[in-house]
Each structure stands twice: as structure tokens, then as C-alpha cells.
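Title: Prediction job returns without error message
Component: structure pipeline
Severity: low
Priority: P3
Assignee: unassigned

Description:
Job completed but the reporter wants confirmation the result is attached to the right record. Sequence as submitted:
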Amino acid sequence: MHIWVDADACPGVIKDILYRAAERASLSLTLVANRMLQVPRSSWIRTVQVASGFDSADHHIVAASVAGDLVITADIPLAAAVVAKGAHALNPRGELYTRDNMQGLLDMRNFMDTLRSSGVDTGGPRAMDNGDRQAFAAQLDRWITRNHAS
């Protein structure tokens, strides 16, 4: 069982929660990015630097993840790809992506993309707040409890 992080866009506060969880639960954590990352020294935490380019980190995560792994991402197409493989996916705001909610999320993402492409200003995501961090930490703890035998 492994936790993969789409690290280029993952907020630092979420990475900090993941570092602590990996140490506490003795879980392998890999951050994948197209730039060099600084992470705490740990036998549980590592980084993979991929070539820069569109979706390079996503492609690496899809190829490397297996059923039962957890992928941390806000990228809905990446989440859909790993969920289809039997992995779990969690966004940095604490929303668990599942086979049941994936199609609706993809449809909404595509709709918003179409609006933006036609010139409609849809705004960006709201800033992360303490509630988001707490929701993420709680969902991560639930996932670890359900899926990781210590």
C-alpha cells in the first residue's frame, strides 16, 4: 500500500499532514513533481522528479499506482484514471473520489472547461481554509484506519 501525491499543485499544508501521517503509520509516501522538491528525511518519504511537460506527473502516477494505493490530487482526470485501476483518490480538500461520484465530477469539470473556453470567467477555486485542512486530515485518517494494517 502506497500513497502517491500529485505534488506540483498540492498545498504545503497538505504535504505536511501527509509527512506526519506517513511517519505515524509507517506508510510509503511518494511525491511526484516536475521540479525538485524538499521533503523531510525519512525512510517512508521519497520524491520522483519527472520531465516537465503536460501531465508528466499524472502519467507517472497512473503507471506506478496499483489497486489499493491512495493518490492525492485535485486533478479529476487523474483521479478517474487511478480509481478505474482500483486505487483510491482524495483531493486536498478532503473529498474522496469514488466510482460512484467520478462521472458527475468529470462532467462538471468538462462543463466548466467548456465555459472557460468560450470566454466565461468562472473564477478559480476558493482559498484553502482550516476546515479544508481538517476535512483532509480526517478523511486521510479514516482511509489509513480502513486500509492499513499497522
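Comment from assignee: result matches the submitted record. The CA atoms of residues 3 and 70 lie 5 Å apart.
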